[in-house]
Amino acid sequence: MAKLPILEFPDERLRTKAVAVETVDDEVRQLVDDMLETMYDARGIGLAATQIDVHRRVVVMDVSDDNSQPLVLINPRYEPMGEEKEPLSEGCLSIPEYYAEVPRFLKVKLNALDRNGEPYELEADGLLAHCIQHEYDHLEGVLFVDYLSSLKRDRVMRKMQKRHKLMQDA
Ligand code: NI
Q1: Coil, strand, or helix at residue 90?
Q2: Of 11, 89, 92, 158, which residue is most buried, by most CB within 10 angstroms?
């Protein structure tokens, strides 16, 4: 397995729309394993392939406290179950050290393929439902800061530019 570098906002490559996976083969399974390793190493609860500059519809997640429940979402789709939304504080491995509340559907029904290419369905609420919507957005080139006011987004942008400059100078 290999740990992969994560793209950071405002990198334009994060705006790429990912394409569907046609066949879940060994190459895709290797990608999934590398993404899980990268996500756990970065202490994240979700990672979309977009974030490692691979523009295919693959997501990994684990919202458990002890990294015991890896979830693989290949070609995911979801539908809201009801109209209700709730705000929850979100972060993103592509926007380190920044958190903001984003309203998302409270409950969603997920359809995806697993690591073996088998289709499954899952009803999710709370943190998992939020995470599914956040990661799905990545595949569409959307980031959670897009839901904030332009004032807040500009502030995040400046913070990230400062961070990248510090990293370059170091
Ligand atoms: Ni994210």
Answers
A1: strand
A2: 92
